[in-house]
Amino acid sequence: MVVMEETVQLVQITDTHLFAKDEGCLLSVNTAQSFLAVVDDVVVRNVAFDAIVATGDISQDHSLESYSRFAQGIECLEKPCYWLPGNHDRKKNMSQLLPSKQIREMEHVLAGDYWQLIMLNSQVEGLPHGYLDESQLDLLEEKLNQYPQRHTLILFHHNSLPIGSAWLDQHKLQKAPQFWERIAGYDNVRAVLGGHVHQKVDKEHNGVRVMATPSTCIQFKANSDEFALDTLPPGWRHLQLHKDGSIESQVYRLSEGRFIPDFESEGY
Ligand SMILES: [Fe+2]
User: Fold this and answer.
1) What is the pLDDT of residue 266?
2) How far is the CA of 15 from the centre of ligand 1 (A)?
3) Nearest CA-CA partner of 8 in 106, 111, 77, 90
4) Burial bucket for residue 228 (CB in 10 Å: 0-12, 13-18, 19+)
5) Is the C-alpha dihedral spanning 78, 82, 84, 90 positive or negative?
6) CA 216 to centroid of ligand 1, rounded, Å
7) Would you state the pLDDT for residue 4?
8) Residue 259 in domain
9) Which end of the chain has the least Cβ crowding within 10 Å, N or C?
10) Is residue 264 part of a domain?
């Protein structure tokens, strides 16, 4: 990844849930329109960034057309995009879109001189929960060993910590303690970043920052044991990964009153 300054700057876009059809809606929110409004918000806010990271659930119907809709939507951002699959995605169809001018499917990215991104696949095809199999955990350790001087941002779709909503937490990363054990011995892990929970999360666990980011479409209500939507608008995240390993991060949201979901719905 080409980085302009010592600080690596990223834009995270997650859980776009796109459809092949223009009129595709998730709980009454047109996901193509809300995604494009978020991309527009990135442009309007005029933040500097070196790359986009897209952390899964790119598609809701896992069609090839939905993935090319995503690719077209981010064209105006004019930066490379590193993507990984969520539970709703079909990896084969994601890969079929490649090679692409902007989109990269890479498990490991050297970002400037001081950071590395490790992008893991936590998808269990056909099921909503996540899991990192041995090959993914081995890859993680291999890169942590190989680049001990680099600060590390680990990315995968599912939440590795419970967030306090029973209906969502049953679909979190399974065997998460194994993941945390595997990285416990390394002092170069700075943060874990994902999507999946459709809300802003910013916590710390074992000295590692753990973040999740609002979806570009519907938002799930925090601390609700039953399925519930939130009135908060769609959003995205900006990250600054500094040379000293510290991270500044800001979640931005669209203005209130746009893309209101159907609050009568009982699930998704
Ligand atoms: Fe999602």
Assistant:
1) 78
2) 4
3) 111
4) middle
5) positive
6) 9
7) 82
8) no
9) C
10) no
